[in-house]
Design brief:
Keywords: Adaptive immunity, Cell adhesion, Cell membrane, Cell projection, Disulfide bond, Glycoprotein, Immunity, Immunoglobulin domain, Membrane, Repeat, Signal, Transmembrane, Transmembrane helix. The protein is mainly β and 559 residues long. 15% of the residues lie in helices and 46% in strands. Strands 1, 2, 4, 5, 6, 9 and 10 form a seven-stranded mixed β-sheet that branches. It has a five-stranded mixed β-sheet with strand order 29-34-33-31-32, with no helix packed on it. The N terminus and C terminus are likely disordered.
């Protein structure tokens, strides 16, 4: 009796305090922690801590003792107390959304800390169902339905197009939503329907919907719209030429694309199904004109292109092999017909000519092969003729017969070899042959009926070399003596010795003449009785001249 009266007296003396309510959000299915006194440290004079809710007590804990579960309902096996006196509720559900109170007895105070628990759950998934098969421009169509099941609170669904938020405007964008609650779990399923009026730019657009931090997979739709424009394209790698194949391609901007077209080919209509192309084969200059294409179900939806076929015609007269006599004239006739600007070039025996040749009076030098090339863009036409100049009737057999004009030799720069040169004329072009083999054979271009051929040899003995020139009309031959390089040196020595001997003989002859002259002069003076002074003076002059001549000859001999 004494203890009971003391406890009653103690309780009466306690001061009772209630704090403002806090709110805690827990996750569905997880263990929820509800803090006591907002997680404040335990008071030093703590006596007892107790958790309770509207329907009864859950558990208590005396100072320095373990917590005791006193609940007998659904919380019996789900509640516990943390070290900091927080209430732990396992496997939280929506039925746990209520107010829990932590009561703390410390000293002479009793404090209560109520906490409101809310349970949240994100939707299990976010997905778009009931998709439209296609969207037609300008026509309101239910694009799809977005659902966010098993959520708490109910999910708020947002629609996006290419990651941009779609806002309902009551016209092109209409969004309607509804929420269903599961009777067992209390979780909600939100459904949102999007009615959308498509535009041409919505082709390949990506639509998504989202709730909280979850997004659906993106979806796209086929946007259909009628053809508004047709374009005709000419497929070609370059300017069109006669003989080419021309492919016409008709493109339309409708969706789905038209599969059949009408091609208007030179006033004829060709229907093409399951293709947008038509090929005109082996075109000619007559194919030049206007071409059109149109869609089959709307002939007014068309496009056209003007096509030009390039062509080049050329004829040259004469052609082939032309035989003419020297002195005659030859008229050339070049005719061209083309669709554009031309370039004309002439060559003779592959050598470029400045202009079209003119033959008023033919000579042997006019012989040769003439070619004309006419070009227009990528088109090229060629024609040629070979001109052969013949002699007049009396000289027919000699016309164009090759003749050697010059056969010469000279020592090479190194003194060890000799270079032979054979120059000839004739038409057609003569061939040159030598009677010996050599090196570095060099033939000049055949120009104006003339040709020159050089041959380098190293003779080891004195020999005679023959040059032969020939063509289909005849041949000509010449020979030249060629000595060895050492023989040339011996010949030079013999020449020098001969010069010296000749000069010596000349000196002897001059001396003999002088002696005879002096003898005759003395005899004359004696007979006539003339003084010898004048003759002596003349003799001295003559002697001086002879001495000068002798000295000059002597110098030549020394050289």
């Amino acid at each position: 009796m004494h203890f009971s009266s003391c406890l009653c007296t103690l309780l009466v003396a306690l001061v009772y305090q209630v704090s403002a309510m806090d709110t805690v959000i827990g996750l569905y299915g997880e263990t929820v922690e509800v803090p006591c006194n907002n997680g404040a440290p335990k008071p030093k004079d703590l006596f007892i801590t107790k958790w309770k809710y509207d329907n009864g007590d859950l558990l208590t804990q005396l100072k320095d003792q373990d917590a005791s579960v006193i609940a007998t309902d659904k919380y019996k096996d789900r509640v516990s107390m943390a070290e900091n006196s927080s209430l732990l509720i396992a496997k939280a559900s929506l039925k746990d959304e209520k107010t829990f109170t932590c009561m703390v007895v410390a000293g002479a105070d009793i404090s209560e800390y109520p906490v409101k628990l809310l349970i949240h759950k994100a939707p299990t998934r976010v997905e778009i169902t009931a998709l439209a098969t296609e969207l037609e421009i300008g026509k309101p169509t239910q694009l799809g339905q977005c659902s966010a099941p098993d959520a708490n609170p109910a999910a708020n669904i947002t629609w996006f197009k290419n990651k941009k938020h779609l806002v309902a405007d009551g016209k092109g964008i209409i969004i309607s939503s509804k929420v269903n609650v599961d009777e067992v779990t209390g979780l909600t399923t939100t459904s949102s329907t999007l009615q959308y009026t498509a535009e041409k730019g919505d082709t390949d657009a990506l639509f998504t919907c989202g709730a909280l931090n979850a997004l659906s997979s993106p979806v796209s739709f086929t946007v259909t719209y009628p053809t508004e424009r047709v374009s005709l394209h000419v497929i070609s790698k370059g300017p069109l030429m006669e003989g080419d194949n021309v492919t016409l391609k008709c493109k339309a901007d409708g969706n789905p694309l038209p599969t059949s077209f009408n091609f208007h080919i030179q006033r004829k209509v060709v229907k093409v199904e399951n293709s947008d192309s038509y090929t005109v084969t082996d075109v000619t200059r007559d194919s030049t004109g206007e071409y059109k294409c149109s869609i089959i179900d709307n002939a007014k939806m068309e496009d056209s292109k003007n096509i030009t076929i390039n062509y080049l015609d050329m004829s040259l007269s004469p052609s082939g092999k032309v035989m003419k006599s020297a002195g005659e004239s030859l008229a050339l006739n070049l005719q061209t017909d083309a669709s554009g600007e031309l370039r004309v070039s002439w060559t003779k025996d592959n050598g470029k000519l400045d202009k079209m040749p003119k033959f008023d009076k033919l000579t042997y030098s006019d012989s040769g092969k003439y070619e004309v090339v006419v070009t227009m863009g990528a088109l090229i036409k060629k024609a040629s003729f070979e001109l052969v100049i013949e002699a007049e009737e009396a000289m027919l057999l000699l016309a164009g017969i090759p003749v050697i004009r010059r056969l010469a030799k000279q020592r090479g720069e190194d003194g060890q070899h000799k270079v032979l040169t054979c120059e000839a004329e004739g038409s057609p072009k003569p061939t040159v042959a030598w009677s010996v083999n050599g090196t570095s054979a060099d033939e000049s271009p055949y120009v104006n009926g003339k040709i020159s051929h050089k041959l380098t040899i190293v003779p080891t003995v004195n020999l005679t070399v023959v040059c032969t020139v020939s063509n289909e009309l005849g041949q000509d031959t010449r020979a030249i003596n060629v000595s060895t390089c050492s023989s040339d040196d011996s010949d030079t020595t013999k020449l020098v010795v001969g010069v010296i001997v000749g000069l010596l003989l000349a000196t002897v002859v001059v001396g003999l003449a002088y002696w005879l002259y002096m003898k005759k002069s003395k005899q004359g003076s004696w007979k006539t009785g003339e003084k010898e002074d004048g003759s002596t003076e003349e003799s001295k002059k003559l002697e001086e001249k002879i001495e000068e001549k002798l000295e000059e000859n002597s110098q030549k001999v020394e050289v």
